[in-house]
Amino acid sequence: MGSVSETFTGEEADARSSPRPERWRSAVAWTVAGCWGVWAAARLVAVDRLPGLGMPAIPLISFTPYVAATAAVPVACAAILRHRWALLASALVAAALVAPMLPRAMAGGQPAAQGPTVRVLTANLLFGQARPERVLQLVRRHDVDVLSLQELTPQAVAGLEAAGLTRLLPYKVIDPRTGAAGTGLYARHPLRALPAPPGTVMAMPRAEFSLPGGRTVEVTAVHPPPPISRAAVRHWRHDLRALPSSSGGRDGRVRILAGDYNATLDHAHLRRVLSRGYADAADRTGGGLIPTWGVSAGARTPLTIDHILVDRRCAVRDLKVYDIAGSDHRAVFADVRLP
Asked: Which parts pass through the membrane (predicted)?
């Protein structure tokens, strides 16, 4: 009996000294850290710009704010499992995910712009189904100077103008179409049509807006297609590249790009547009994480894909986001002071 007892005790000791529990903890800690790490790496290397990786990388990268919101999970997991190297790696991954989000939620410094103001409103009408009276209500509330409308159908034009839009904004450069491809600009002061960005799938009219006193602003209504197929990804990339660069004052022009970009600030293609002399109005005012699509449709993870980009020399005095009955997008309003 004594020998049996001794044998049992020896096996128990071997089990205690086995490295298997340690290997298990290490595997779990590194696997969890790796899941978030892959996402952080994908954003850092701008995976949506790499050839052949458009699908599903571009749609997925839109959800980066939600991944960043859960970045404490791998940190907590590594801490519970007492794996210090995985803990360090998880902390670095969390920092890489959270750091780009913080400026969007905090108002930054504004340029010392002293020019006149331009009040801009952009709204996607969801195949023209948005309620005209809601659009006009927002135009009146903010005394809007320029209105950019996406998914502007001939029926939507008829409904908006019958409701009185052209009494408030009598000047227009519009290209209404059936389905989602129509887009247009309405304005309080004269508009002069300019050549649109070349080769775009959706209409993206561009116009010179003349303010009282002689100042002009070049405005483009933006609407690249949603990148939900290989063909759509190609068009989405092309249309974002086709947007005009800001001159930074070299040609005396101030440019504003307003619309539904089907892109978030986590997409390298949108950041590239920003790098060409623009600032995101919501980002400037601490509203860069306010979702603009999917809220009214009940989406669990609504996204921020509607933007007003302004010449970075402009100051953004105010930004608001509003629901629009009949649309799955929210309207975005910005009060912009010109340089």
From this structure: 27-46, 58-78, 85-102
